[in-house]
Amino acid sequence: MSALTKAKGFKKSKSGTYLSMAATAFGAVGAAKQIKKARAESDTLRLVDAVVTAAGIVTGLALLYRELKRLGDDDVLLG
After folding, report:
1. C-alpha torsion sign, points 58, 62, 63, 64
2. Is 8 buried (19+), middle (13-18) or exposed (0-12) by CB count in 10 A?
3. Taking all residues of the chain, what is their mean pLDDT, rounded to a whole number?
4. Confidence of residue 79 (pLDDT cuts 50, 70, 90)
5. DSSP string spanning 14-40?
6. How far apart are CA 9 and CA 21, in angstroms?
7. In whole angstroms, what is the distance from residue 6 CA to residue 56 CA?
8. Distance, CA of 75 to CA of 25 (rounded, Å)
9. 5, 50, 54, 78: most buried, per Cβ within 10 A?
10. Is 13 left (phi over 0), alpha (psi -120 to 50) or beta?
11. Greatest CA span in the chain, whole angstroms?
12. CA 77 vs CA 7, 14, 27: distances in Å
């Protein structure tokens, strides 16, 4: 298996999934700041936007967690 093939399979590996989860969780920090700012300014539209963003982040993390469980022992980079 060539290095290029392994690099293409990184997204489907456990380590790639963990990296995606970390990046998605990092987005939660921005959403939390946006919620805090919207509450302080009593801006309902901005608050709704932040809540929808947070819901997307939670959904993304759930999908990545499911993919991580599905990978199991057949990790692309290990084999």
Report:
1. positive
2. exposed
3. 83
4. very low
5. HHHHHHHHHHHHHHHHHHHHHHHHHHH
6. 17
7. 29
8. 22
9. 50
10. beta
11. 56
12. 9, 8, 26
